[in-house]
Amino acid sequence: MKYLATRIATALAVLAMAGGASAQAIIQNSEVQMGVRAYGDLNVGGGTPASGSGTTVVGLRSVRTNSDSTSPGCTCEGWGVGLRSTGQYGAANSAGEGVANLSLVSFNSTASTAVSVVNVLSATGAAILQVTHDYHPIAGTPYLYEVLVSIKNMTGTALAASDLVYRRVMDWDIPSPGYESVSIQGVPAGLGLANGSNLYRSDNNGFNYGNPFSFSSYGLQNQNFVNSEGRDQGALFDFEFEALANGATRTFATYYGVAPTKAAADLARSLVDGDSSDVEIGLYSYGSCTGGLTGCDSSTGAPDTFIFGFGAAGGVLVPPDRGDVPEPASLALVGLGLLAAVGARRRKSVAA
């Protein structure tokens, strides 16, 4: 037992050092390619020239058409987390404020996965929150990547309801600024925890910073809309959370993907668990082109409908609880495999 425990610790340490040496990664499955930065935001250089724009920065890209959706023009894609009670926050957005009030704990990647772990720092440099973004393909559909987001309370005290907030924002550029058709759907009539929703704000201004305490609107705030065209725009979603005990973690699922049409994207949102009878991604934004690509049709979403969504219904971010297992992703899975071996030996010993 002691030997196996030592092997687990050694394997995790080696993987952490190997992954930590890499500051970013371009990952993909058969349909979706993503450039993931060390701090969990998107847009990484080193890809092939994208269709329609020629950019070599990979954000959220279609493998099938090689069109990118977040890297042409402004590489504006990122996230932020904060505490309303103190105004402290951490954020990562390469084209906004950059990396703010974060320290890197680890970054690990494979050909198809990436896991970023960072600490949010107080003014004195103390870690007050730990945020993990775990990017991996899912078994249900090749058109989606799941990103499990985990936020751990390290403040030393319990957080009251609505104190903890999280933002994800991006500027759609498909295939270049101003050629995108944008939709946002699933915004509930009642917003905020007081109305039973984790979502408290949405907007089509993708140029907002990751800082969740800053905000400006492009005119479609807290609205459901389809095919907004004629300007350079994106999608923003702000969330607030239930009370969180010190040391506790709140986990929820976000999704990035691309499908050939809006109809295929609609189906993909219901195939997260492999069962098309219900829809797991109830809050989302679609981005497609209005020109600049062969076969572009904003009404059908051809040739690419890019997907940005959340595992949510009625604005509530549902903690993931599914039977499907993501593809092997990170050092955590190696550790879990070794721990399973320990458990198997223990059960065998008990049975004997």
Helices and strands in order:
Elements: H1 2-20, E1 24-28, E2 32-37, E3 60-62, E4 77-83, E5 89-93, E6 98-100, E7 102-109, E8 114-121, E9 127-137, E10 144-153, E11 164-171, E12 180-185, E13 199-203, E14 225-228, E15 234-240, E16 249-259, H2 262-269, E17 283-289, E18 305-310, E19 312-313, E20 316-317, H3 331-351
Antiparallel strand pairs: 1-2, 2-3, 4-5, 4-11, 5-6, 7-8, 8-9, 9-10, 10-16, 11-15, 12-14, 12-17, 13-15, 16-18, 17-18, 19-20
Helix pairs in contact: 1-3
Keywords:
9-stranded antiparallel sheet, 352 residues, 6-stranded antiparallel sheet, 3 helices, disordered N terminus, mainly beta
Number of strands: 20
Helix content: 10-25%
**Net shape:** globular
Oligomeric status: single chain
The arrangement of helices and strands along the chain is HEEEEEEEEEEEEEEEEHEEEEH
Number of helical stretches of at least 4 residues = 3
Strand content: 35-45%
Tally the structural domains: 1
Low-confidence stretches: 1-21, 322-352
Provide a quick synopsis of the model.
With about 350 residues, this protein is mostly beta strands.
Structure notes:
The protein has 352 residues and is mainly beta. The protein has one domain. It contains three helices and 20 strands. A nine-stranded antiparallel beta sheet has the order 7-8-9-10-16-18-17-12-14. Strand 8 and strand 9 form a beta hairpin. It is globular.
